[in-house]
Write a structure and sequence with these properties.
alpha/beta, Aldehyde Dehydrogenase, Chain A, domain 1, Aldehyde Dehydrogenase, Chain A, domain 2, 2 domains, five-stranded parallel beta sheet, 15 helices, 39% helix, binds nicotinamide-adenine-dinucleotide
Length: 487
């Protein structure tokens, strides 16, 4: 497969000739060397996207949609290969890639393929004698920066709405796991996306990413990643006041009430934090348990956590793979040390597994710990299979614990009470609330956060609108002479 940069429809070497080594996180093995884009490559790609934009925007929306639909079909046909690439590159278990990552990618491109010709403007009731309508126009060239936790799926979340709305894209995949995105680039060429409409430039954040965020010809930058980098993106965007969409970190509260269906809550809460090794911005990383069911819940939950099968991501039996990089493993282990120093009680995990077969990979055991509400590990995003437990007596306490965060992305609650469920859904400060479920996503439903989890939305109509700018057009229908300066 291609390992070069996709610029203006041509796979090419980086101008400065740099390479990035891509590593298999399950065993530290070298997977590939890919071209490393730097500022001068970003300039070329942005120029290509700018040149391609007028024709792309003028193309019938239906035809743009058809290309996205054809792409979705090709991805579906390549499910096995893409799942394998994603598993090798990120460490996601192959079963998760087959059941979630690839199908969700297909669904997303398909949704926006269908959406392309459904974005309508408005007619606004203004003064008599005038017609005012608002049309939504594409922004032009958009920059997109994708992280390493769901590189394949996030490529579709970013590209789908942007392309459907008539923008051209310069996308920087993560330096850590770029392979599935490069393969998507190949499939896009195969189905006939015109040159320059999509440009894919793997590179490092400080160089390629920063330059893309600063670029004066980029009209919008869409970023998923850490809150710290999100702040740098906002600063970098100031030069030309480009639009910014940020999907940043989270510290998801997951509340289990006394009246919850316990087996469902245990299984759902495990999925909330352990799926993808906890490397998800929406992870349910703070378990908030009613004190009357806490012991019964934890007995089952910790038992389940200890039974999760860690192993080779390509083995269909594996339920949890490695973290995606050594740097990230060190970060999660560091948080284990911080928790110990702050007096947390570990119920399981907190260390790398003893199994010698996993010694060269970046594995960590599923970790459950009791920590005080204001401990560091209850406030900062750990981004691993690492979940804190606190308990409450009253609904008011549960809500206060849930909202004790600067983030506000995913949140969940488990209860049989309809009225309590609705009250909490109204009062939790988060962009998404799951009731008796966790981590459901769909391309039709807006995804994004409150507070330091960012702004703007991915998916759904919200995302399409965020990739356009409204233009208000006034028509003097009566052809009257305006009452000013008449002679
Ligand atoms: P990061 O935010 O630094 O990297 C994410 C993406 O941003 C990568 O593509 C990277 O190349 C790019 N980037 C980095 N610096 C940049 C810059 N100055 N300008 C433009 N682009 C830049 O994340 P990380 O260091 O890999 O992970 C750190 C923490 O971030 C994690 O522990 C986790 O808490 C959080 N994170 C969140 C998400 C999410 O889905 N919201 C994804 C990845 C990481």
């Amino acid at each position: 497969m291609q390992t070069k940069l996709l610029i203006n429809g041509v796979w090419q070497d980086a101008q400065a000739g740099g390479k990035i080594a891509v590593i298999n996180p399950a065993n530290g093995a070298h997977l590939a060397d890919i071209a490393e884009a730097r500022a001068e490559d970003v300039d070329l790609a942005v120029a290509a996207a700018k040149k391609a934009h007028p024709a792309w925007a003028a193309m019938a929306a239906h035809d743009r949609g058809q290309l996205l639909l054809r792409l979705a079909d090709r991805i579906e046909q390549e499910t096995a290969e893409l799942a394998r690439l994603e598993a090798l590159d990120t460490g996601h278990p192959i079963n998760d890639c087959l059941r979630l990552d690839v199908p969700r990618t297909v669904l997303c491109f398909r949704y926006f393929g269908g959406m392309a010709d459904k974005l309508q403007g408005d007619v606004v009731p203004v003064d008599a004698g005038f017609l005012n309508f608002v049309q939504r126009e594409p922004i032009g060239v958009v920059g997109q920066i994708v992280p390493w936790n769901f590189p394949l799926m996030f490529t579709s979340w970013k590209m789908g709405p942007a392309l459907a709305a008539g923008n051209c894209v310069v996308l920087k995949p993560t330096e850590l796991a770029p392979l599935s995105t490069l393969r998507i680039g190949e499939l896009m060429q195969e189905v006939g996306f015109p040159p320059g409409v999509v440009n894919i430039l793997p590179g490092y954040g400080q160089t390629a990413g920063q330059h893309l965020a600063e670029h004066p010809d980029v009209g919008k930058i869409a970023f998923t990643g850490s809150t710290a980098t999100g702040r740098r993106i906002v600063e970098a965007s100031a030069g030309n006041l480009k639009k910014v969409q940020l999907e940043l970190g989270g510290k998801g509260p997951n509340i289990v009430f006394e009246d919850a269906n316990l087996p469902a809550a245990v299984g759902g809460s495990a999925f909330a934090i352990f799926h993808n090794q906890g490397q998800a911005c929406i992870a349910g990383s703070r378990l908030i348990l009613h004190e009357n069911i806490a012991e019964a819940f934890l007995e089952k939950f910790v038992g389940l956590a200890k039974s999760i099968r860690l192993g080779d991501p390509l083995d269909p039996q594996t339920e949890m793979g490695p973290l995606t990089s050594k740097t990230h493993l060190d970060r999660v282990l560091h948080y284990c040390d911080v928790a110990r120093k702050e007096g947390a009680e570990f119920l399981c995990g907190g260390k790398q597994p003893d199994d010698p077969a996993l010694a060269n990979g970046y594995f960590i055991e599923p970790t459950v710990l009791r920590a005080k509400p204001d401990d560091t590990v209850n406030l900062e995003e750990v981004f691993g299979p690492f979940v804190t437990v606190t308990t409450f007596k009253t609904d008011a306490e549960a809500l206060a614990l849930a909202n004790n965060t600067r983030y506000g992305l995913g949140s969940g609650l488990w209860t049989a009470s309809l009225s309590r469920a609705h009250q909490f859904a109204n009062n939790i400060k988060a962009g998404m609330v799951w009731i008796n479920s966790y981590k459901r996503v769909h391309p039709a439903s807006p995804f994004g956060g409150f507070g330091e989890s960012g702004y703007g939305r991915e998916m759904g109509f919200e995302a399409m609108r965020d990739y356009t700018q409204p233009k208000s057009v006034w028509v003097n229908v009566d052809a009257q002479i305006p009452p000013f300066y008449q002679r």
